[in-house]
Amino acid sequence: MKLLDLFCGAGGCAWGYRMAGFEIVGVDIEPQPNYPFAFHQGDALEFFRRRSARGDFAGVRFDAIHASPPCQMYSRALKHLSAPQPMLIGAMRVALRETDVPWVIENVEGAPLPTQSTLDGRHGVELCGSMFGLPIFRHRLFETSFPVEAPGGCSHKGLAMNPHNEPGRQRIYDAYGHGQHPEAPWREAMGVAWMERYEAREAVPPAFTAYIGRYLAHEVRRTSTLRKAAA
Question: Per 3-state DSSP, what percentage of the chain is helix, strand, and coil (rounded to 5)?
């Protein structure tokens, strides 16, 4: 199964989809030297819009599409710190709805994405690191073209690692000592050890998309079967 990873960053989402059995091609407007799979540099939305009438890209037909549009203007924590960024979720959703393959849009808390199936036929889920046993309380929203449910409730009763505040940083020092920068074990715990510090700060833990990817793979097989039956 081939997946097109739009606005791919350094590949946190991609790695999770790879764990779920997908072959990945990433697209991002910025160079991504640490992206672990095939990569094309360019405007992700425009790249997607240039697909052929058959729905392929340079002769490659993708079975699924993931998009992580820029999050800064939706983020409650980062909006006041960042330069203005495009708000592309709406445009990306319109473009994806024109396809005949399953798709996923990922973004931060505060983005206009559903967190459950809605009466108007939208689907979505909010995931947290605590749902996967990670010592990371990171939340991300996923809107999907198919129903998906969270693996369980979100629990912040444990002690989270966080190199960006004093209590979380001290927990890292207590566990790993002061011999390395606290972001190194934090990246390891997130599952993105190959990333640089600034890449990891915006990364999605691969456990999230490995989970979403199982639903996505099932939907790919289902839609493929329906397409063949209609042919």
Answer: 35, 15, 50
